[in-house]
Amino acid sequence: MKPPPAVSQWHPTPRQKRMLISAGSALAAILLTGGVWVYITSAPQRAQTQLEQGTRLMIPGSYRDAVKRFDRSIQIWPHLADAYYQRGIAHHLLGDADAATEDLTSAIAENPQLGAAYTERGTIFRDHRDLERALADFTRAVEVNPSPNGFYQRGQTYASLGQPQKAIEDFDRAIAELPDAPAIYRARAEAKRSLGDMAGYKADHDVAIRNEYGDVPPAWVDRPLPPDSPGVVFGGPAPEASQKKPPANSKPRATRPKE
To answer: Over the stretch 194-207, which tens digit does the pLDDT of each residue have?
Structure first.
């Protein structure tokens, strides 16, 4: 029996070798370019993932860890406005007003329609008594995204500027959208009291207490001044606080208006 014929081996010529090397290099370049392109185009999604992880860490005791996530998000994709916004809030909560202001300004630059960033930056300005800049930010906030918190914050700023009527108008708008927030009723009550409207003051104060504590508030809760008490100049001294103190185990509901 004859053995099978030997398989002939192919021996490329030098020219063919050069062609194979060139083709292989071209294929490698195509694959590499495709990988780089996929990596680049996935940057926004990868940045969003870091942002979401950081947002979940926005709880007391974890703000610094949240900042690290927001740092990564911005490094991956420096055009994500929400990453700057959330990092600005974290810096604000950590007491770094300068870093917070810088981040919020960057958030606004990336997305001029981000009303919450104007509101947050406005609170920083107001905390530092830069009331005119605070007022400008709150006004811009309610222009691009009308919200109860925006109107409430602007109303508080008008109050600090000694303009109670404008403050009441903003509190009215906030209450129209968020009718169960005690803080807004308290703020409007003080504005009305400064104008001498003691009946309006008492009515708003009563609603604030009812919204916060229910129909039967604890005995230590401050009561409003009687209707015939004189008003005070808006932005002047606060009324004398009740000598009664809340019991140690009391936990009134949070009153900060939401966006």
So the answer is: 999 999 999 999 99
